[in-house]
Amino acid sequence: MIPTFAVVGHPNKGKSSIVATLAEDERLAIGPTPGTTRRASAHTFSIDGTPQYVLVDTPGFQRAGAVLEWLEDRATTASARPALVAEFVSSHATDERFRDECELLRPIVEGAGILYVVDGSKPYGAEYELEMQILQWTGRPRMALINLIGEEDHTAEWRQALDQYFSIVRVFDAVAADFDTRVALLRAFGELDASWRAPLERAVTALVEERDSRRQKSATEIAACLVDSLVMTERASLAEGAPLEPLKAELVDALKRKLRRREDRCRAAVQGFYRHQDLAREEAGQTLIDEDLFTETGWELFGLSRQRLVITGVLTGAVAGGGIDLLLGGASLALGAGIGALIGGAGAWLGGSELARVRILGESLGGQVVQVGPVKAPNFPWVLLGRAWLHHQLVAERNHAYRDAISVSVKGEQNLMDMLPDDLVRSLARAMGQVRSRGDDPELRQQLVALVARVLTRPLKTN
Ligand SMILES: Nc1nc2c(ncn2[C@@H]2O[C@H](COP(=O)(O)OP(=O)(O)OP(=O)(O)O)[C@@H](O)[C@H]2O)c(=O)[nH]1
Ligand SMILES: [Mg+2]
Fold it and tell me: Cα(184) to centroid of ligand 1, in Å?
């Protein structure tokens, strides 16, 4: 049988949040009012279609005192207790007063392990003792999870009480727990019952492999987005005698829209790999991740700094074509005064009207064909990659219990891509330069995938 755990406790203590995080379910109902969950529901966590474990979300205890009274009235020997709990459930199946208790006890009676959830930011109280006693009566393997919903920390007093009823007591923050904490918790589940150890070890292995595979898939998607964006153009025919300017501006706008859509598709795909399809981004555009692809602030934050572009030879194309050292005196230029002049002001930085190449492709029937693109601004692929890196990290590290919109700021507000080591920047620059000069080809894509994967494994400091 697949290891199955019923997540139980007082109302509003984060039971559903724990199920959402461990089962990676972004749609499970979580809410600030007690009683959000009304029915027990089983959530199977599968990887590649193979079920790994099941978590049963349940409503909270409502009438623990009355249940315990019923049990104690009929108590005989300790060994008869589990059967008595089962009898309680079967004899109250249609009793509305005990609906929540039946919902939460049924999966346990049917063989699930118990995960008892408490809020360690609230003081311990005697009322919880009744719940713990009922759970003890079931005789099932059980672990207590101290979730911290608020700021205060009453973990120590909780531990004293919980240790008496549960073989394992762990602190687990449903919203903020990182990957390693999650893995450690699964291993602890395996300690509850000998028959669960092997399947949960397999689940841990599968989860770690799955994380690598998600990162690899993301790298493939982001590399594809980079290539597509680097070769993207927009064309229209210019009627004979018509002025070039308005058409050119229209085409630049159309190209930008197309590039934004491509980036959106990339983000959607990455979110899909991590089962975060529904993730909303912060409204109003004031947060970094939602910054439009084509704004000067964005270009200052993501991408490489001007200095780094020059030092690494990216700007001059020297890494692709060779010769930066001859041309500019190499690293001696790094702190030189010439850099600003070389690269130009902020306008030239983003590209402005210069963002993309404009070409007249020759005569068509009624006039000429105008092509805008590909984007030639040097920092463009770096900005794209910086945005993708940040987005990937936010999605990859996000627990499924965390329901706020995605938002972030970056420490020090420095250029994101400057955090990469020089050799990686150079290799990326070479590959991007080749895409720019040669166009799309499968071998280049593969190179880029490997390089992007290296970027994605690097932790990005955010606050
Ligand atoms: N900050 C923080 N909030 C949490 C955490 N866990 C749960 N919450 C919040 O606490 C509230 C209750 O969470 P739920 O997961 O719905 O709790 P529940 O125990 O399933 O509640 P019922 O279904 O009503 O019994 C929600 O507003 C959650 O967002 C946590 O670890 N940290
Ligand atoms: Mg709930």
Answer: 21
Alpha carbon distance 55, 371 (integer Å): 56
Q: Which amino acid is present at 238?
A: L
The CB of 120 under 6 Å from ligand 1? The reply is: no
- Provide mean pLDDT across the span 222-233: 95
Contact 128, 158 (CB under 8 A): no
Q: Cα–Cα distance between 371 and 234 in angstroms, integer?
A: 6
* SS3 assignment, position 56: strand
Task: Using DSSP, state whether 12 is helix, strand or coil.
Answer: coil
Compute CA distances 253 → 78, 246, 350, whole Å.
76, 11, 14
Convert the pLDDT of each residue in 362-397 to its tens digit.
Answer: 665 667 888 888 888 888 899 899 989 988 998 998
The whole-angstrom separation of Cα 388 and Cα 359 is 30
Residue of 17, 25, 58, 400 to test ligand 1 pocket, by largest number of atoms within 8 Å of CB: 17
Closest CA to 62 of 90, 99, 33: 99
Q: How far is the CA of 48 from the centre of ligand 2 (A)?
A: 27
Residue 281's DSSP bridge partners are: 406
Q: How far is the CA of 84 from the centre of ligand 2 (A)?
A: 26
Helix axes 194-231, 380-396, angle to 10 degrees: 160
Domains of the chain: 4-192 (3.40.50.300), 214-456 (no CATH)
Which residues touch 313 (CB under 8 Å, ≥6 apart)?
319, 324, 426, 429
pLDDT beyond 90 at 408? no
What is the H or E stretch that residue 64 is in? helix 64-73
Q: Give the residue from 310, 230, 215 showing the smallest Cα distance to 270.
A: 215
DSSP state string for 108-159:
HHTT-EEEEEEETTS---THHHHHHHHHHHHT--EEEEEE--SS---HHHHH
For 276, which DSSP code? -
